[in-house]
């Protein structure tokens, strides 16, 4: 029983929501229609009274007739009976009025809406013809009459105001006739010109719509969402451009062009109504219903059956009925896309932040692995250097001692050489993470006492600016060994008392030059320098550095010099 009652209440609730979803749009549409009719009524109240319909007689003319008098056989037709005549018939509209004196102020006659080609006469004298309206709204005829009548055209007694109308695609009819002074009829004249406001409203709405479409595309890049809005805005712009004066001067027929535009707007409204889903759906349904009603009235106004109906009260509704729906629907779509773009931007920032953290973590892990790999590589290098360098020296010394070929001085020299090599290895490891300049300072501190003990002065020079790149411990060790070998050769063989070491590098992208020169005895021929073990070692170190080794004269034209040119350090 409880389940039945629950389902019953749910169905009742669904029914109420469904009824509300139907009634609320109808109420919105009818309220909008009533508002437009009320505004139109307030405007109409400001008008002066038009000539009574029964005071205007209508005659059907033959094609060769102009301004004839009423015959006994003619029907007694008034303005209200004009729609009983054939559409293609030529008509004469006559109004008879009496003046007690011909001394009257200049008069004015206005016919707000005219279908057909019109010529106006006063007492048989032509005073003018129809004009194109500055703007034609749906349900209106494209022409009007606003003519001044000089007082010289009037006479005491009976006077006649007559219009001859030749039919065209808009038929042959007039809406109402006003006759009075210029001051009295000024509100009617202003109302005709004021209809141009509708054209401006459509043009502004179309421009704003196209601008909103561009903004929407920038927000979402989903052209499918704004395609219909773009079509509707274009149709509104064409409708604004097809004012009567422009269309007629360009030879454009307003009837088919306006009908096609109204059909396009109707299709746009239907497409948006079917597709749109939001929390404002009920309001949009009401505005869509009002738009459809306005478009249906507009389409009906183009039909021949509408000639007997006065559309003036609903013309404002017909003119702007589609704008609230299109504007509100476009605004809700823009707002939804704006919120979605903010959400998407926030999500994107979160994703980028997460990805950045992942990259940082991965980079840290990679750096750790690289560090571990570098440490392992350094251990292996250190093992090889000790084994190949110091181990080789000690093994060679051991063999010589066992065979009795090594003297006390030889043993001391070999042990000192092994000790120096061990110091070089330790120094290169100490400066593996430092710049090359600090490593060279350490070498300077160790080399100076060694040379002083042999009676050789060290002239240590570093160029300014000195900006070498970052070199690894392997490069540092090979530099140490190269310079140590040069110092050893100078101490052992040169007989010099001065050794100059000049270091220069102006930037990481420039070569690193090491110039080493002494003032010893040198050699007679630079080209045929004896290639002893020391020079071979220096050439091997230069090769391992990928550097160029240049030999030359030493200080003051004496001794020897060696220039080591190391290529710039690469980004890797």
From TrEMBL:
GO terms for molecular function: protein histidine kinase activity. Keywords: Kinase, Membrane, Transferase, Transmembrane, Transmembrane helix, Two-component regulatory system. It comes from the Bacteria. SUPFAM superfamilies: ATPase domain of HSP90 chaperone/DNA topoisomerase II/histidine kinase. It catalyses: ATP + protein L-histidine = ADP + protein N-phospho-L-histidine. The chain crosses the membrane at residues 20-39, 201-223, 246-274, 286-303, 315-336. GO terms for biological process: phosphorelay signal transduction system. Its EC number is 2.7.13.3. InterPro entries: HATPase_C_sf, Sensor_HK_TwoCompSys. It is an enzyme of class 2 (transferase). Gene3D superfamilies: 1.20.5.1930, Histidine kinase-like ATPase, C-terminal domain. This is histidine kinase. It comes from Litorimonas taeanensis. The lineage of its organism: Bacteria, Pseudomonadati, Pseudomonadota, Alphaproteobacteria, Maricaulales.
């Amino acid at each position: 029983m409880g389940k039945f009652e629950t389902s019953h209440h749910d169905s009742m609730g669904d029914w109420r929501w469904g009824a509300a979803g139907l009634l609320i749009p109808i109420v919105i549409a009818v309220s909008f229609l009533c508002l437009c009719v009320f505004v139109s009524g307030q405007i109409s109240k400001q008008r002066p009274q038009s000539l009574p319909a029964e005071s205007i007689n209508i005659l059907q003319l033959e094609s060769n007739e102009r301004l004839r008098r009423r015959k006994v056989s003619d029907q007694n037709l008034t303005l209200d009976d004009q729609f009983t005549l054939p559409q293609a018939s030529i008509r004469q509209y006559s109004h008879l009025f009496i003046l007690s004196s011909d001394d009257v102020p200049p008069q004015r006659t206005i016919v707000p809406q005219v279908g057909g080609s019109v010529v106006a006469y006063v007492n048989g004298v032509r005073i003018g013809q129809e004009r194109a309206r500055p703007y034609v709204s749906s349900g209106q005829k494209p022409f009007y009459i606003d003519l001044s009548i000089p007082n010289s055209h009037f006479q005491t007694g009976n006077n006649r105001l007559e219009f001859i109308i030749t039919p065209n695609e808009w038929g042959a009819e007039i809406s109402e006739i006003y006759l009075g002074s210029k001051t009295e009829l000024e509100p009617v004249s202003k109302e005709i010109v004021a209809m141009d406001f509708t054209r401006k409203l459509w043009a502004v709405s179309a421009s704003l719509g196209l601008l909103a479409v561009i903004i929407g595309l920038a927000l979402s890049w989903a052209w499918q969402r704004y395609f219909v809005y773009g079509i509707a805005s274009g149709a509104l712009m064409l409708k604004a451009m097809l004012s009567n004066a422009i269309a007629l001067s360009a030879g454009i027929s307003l009837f088919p062009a306006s009908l096609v535009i109204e059909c396009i707007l109707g299709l746009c409204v239907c497409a948006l109504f079917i597709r749109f889903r939001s929390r404002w759906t009920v309001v949009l349904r009401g505005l869509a219903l009002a738009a459809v009603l306005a478009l249906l009235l507009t389409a009906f106004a183009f039909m021949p059956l509408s000639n007997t109906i006065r559309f003036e009260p609903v013309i404002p509704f017909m003119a702007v009925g589609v704008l609230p729906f299109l504007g509100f629907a476009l605004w809700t779509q823009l707002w939804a896309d704006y919120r979605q773009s903010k959400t998407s931007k926030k999500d994107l920032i979160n994703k980028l932040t997460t990805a950045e953290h992942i990259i940082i973590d991965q980079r840290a892990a990679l750096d750790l692995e690289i560090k571990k790999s570098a440490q392992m590589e350094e251990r292996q290098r250190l093992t090889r250097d000790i084994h190949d360098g110091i181990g080789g020296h000690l093994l060679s010394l051991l063999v010589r001692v066992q065979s009795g070929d090594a003297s006390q001085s030889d043993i001391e020299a070999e042990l000192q050489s092994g000790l120096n090599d061990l110091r070089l290895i330790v120094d290169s490891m100490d400066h593996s993470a430092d710049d090359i300049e600090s490593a060279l300072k350490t070498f300077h501190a160790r080399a100076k006492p060694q040379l002083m003990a042999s009676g050789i002065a060290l002239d240590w020079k570093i160029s300014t600016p000195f900006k070498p790149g970052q070199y690894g411990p392997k490069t540092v060790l090979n530099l140490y060994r190269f310079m140590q070998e040069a110092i050893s050769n100078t101490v052992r063989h040169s007989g010099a008392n001065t050794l100059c070491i000049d270091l220069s590098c102006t930037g990481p992208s420039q070569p690193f030059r090491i110039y080493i020169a002494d003032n010893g005895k040198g050699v007679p021929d630079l080209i045929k320098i004896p290639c002893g073990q020391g020079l071979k070692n220096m050439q091997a170190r230069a090769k391992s550095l990928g550097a160029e080794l240049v030999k030359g004269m030493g200080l003051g034209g004496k001794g020897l010099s060696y220039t080591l040119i190391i290529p710039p350090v690469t980004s890797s």
